[in-house]
Specification:
- The chain has three helices and no strands.
- The protein is mainly α.
- It has one domain.
- This is Osmotically-inducible lipoprotein B.
- Keywords: Lipoprotein, Signal.
- InterPro entries: Gly_zipper_2TM_dom.
- It comes from Pantoea wallisii.
Amino acid sequence: MLLKRSFSIAVVLLVTLSVTACGMSHRGRNTAIGAGVGAVGGAVLTGGSTFGTLGGAAIGGLIGHEVSR
């Protein structure tokens, strides 16, 4: 179980970092980073549930988007 959770977190972080390396706008980069951090946070707080991960990604993306204003 711990290995599966660690792998999932590593994949989310890797995808987030690879997306932010592209030629994105500042707002787009902050949204992607917020979604990645939110997904990891949601997964950790809910024990890896899909709903918690997706909810965390949505909330983190929204926060990252709004911080850029």
